[in-house]
What we know:
The protein is α/β, with parallel strands linked by helices and 428 residues long. It has 2 domains: 33-164, Immunoglobulin-like, CATH 2.60.40.3500; 173-427, Zn-dependent exopeptidases (Aminopeptidase, 3-Layer(aba) Sandwich), CATH 3.40.630.40. The chain is 33% helix and 22% strand. The chain contains 9 helices and 15 strands. The strands form 3 sheets. The protein has a 6-stranded mixed beta sheet, sandwiched between helices. Strands 5-1-2-9-8 form a 5-stranded mixed beta sheet, with no helix packed on it. Strand 10 (187-193), helix 3 (210-226) and strand 11 (231-235) form a beta-alpha-beta unit. Helix 3 crosses helix 8 and helix 6 (314-343) packs across helix 8.
Amino acid sequence: MLLAVKLSIMYIRCLKIAALLLALSSWEAVAKPNVTGMRVAGQADKTRVVIEISETTVQTVFTLENPARVVIDLPAAMLIGKLPGGDGVVTGLRAAKRENGDLRIVLDVNSSVTPKVTWLGAEGALGPRLVVDLPVGKSTAPANGEDLKLASITEAPPSAVSVPSSALPTVSASAKSMSAQNNARDLIIAIDAGHGGEDPGAIGPTGIKEKNVTLAIARLLKEQIDAEPGMHAILTRDGDYFVALSERPHRARQQQADMFVSIHADSVDRASPSGSSVYTLSSKRATSEAARYLADRENAADLIGGVSLEDKSNVLASVLLDLTQGASMSASMEAASHVLEQLDHIGNIHHQQVQQASFKVLTAPDIPSMLVETAFISNPTEELRLSDPRHQARIAEAVMTGVRDYFYANSPPGTRVAQLKLTRQARN
């Protein structure tokens, strides 16, 4: 009897130990960081590599020569996303699990670089991001955008899956690089299709979803801008997937956009309101955003007008930010007025003046930004018009014309638009 009791106690203890080991094993599996996506964006002074990861970890970043490479080791990490193509100084990417279980990501680069590593904390739907900046002495033409296969060294890599946030559109080499004939650049317009994915936005009386309307108009707007000499457009999303509000202006900045236009469709709980509206950022929200930038500048990877704030004194950083933000808000109001004027030609205007509001997508301090409420999707008549491709094209044309009018009135030096403006003035 005593033996049976002892055996029973030992059996229970074994079960507890087994349960503990199972729990530890499960915890270890969950705790392993997952790399869910990557983005590469070539810019004039650097190439930025953003690694989206489920949790922060201790990384090792070093360089190798002959050929030039940047190596990123992430302990016990798993790659579950798809590698992007090269851009800027990065000509290709490879990844594989090492024998010790670390994930090694190799960036093939076309010249020697000195990486600068920054961690961005989780924000909204975005998890932590490891940002690796590769400064360069001069602009480098982007590589082709084809995805590269995962290269395995010791074992087969995980199955590649599409990660929407890694599908950041890249600017074509012709748009980003200087023109060989006139040494001028194209203007870059970032077009933001509101909502997407699990966020449908407003839904009209017959079930039309705002996210689908905004994407259709955004694509048409991109086509029209791309057809305009001296201008090129990028989309913050080009499919039905979710992009966090704070990520949208960040993508515009990554592509060095000269203007940010967010497309939406208004909605209220009544069917009668109608017409278009155009918004810029409110002064109150701008002030709070400026305070956030100043408070976080040491850890933030964002740039204000291309100048990092992290090494500036409080006074100098504040002055730089005030100057940049003030100029941006003034440009936003003027550009929005041109767009509102054009929208008035194709339908009703809900507000006769440009409105100001606290929209998060408009908070980039160094990019003139506006939000266009194309119509009220809650109005049955306007819902029908918003679902009509012909009317969508008219909206896109109105926005494009307003943006074009603004830039011909305020042509940035060194752009093709500035040169085309001088040519037209000479002919007249």
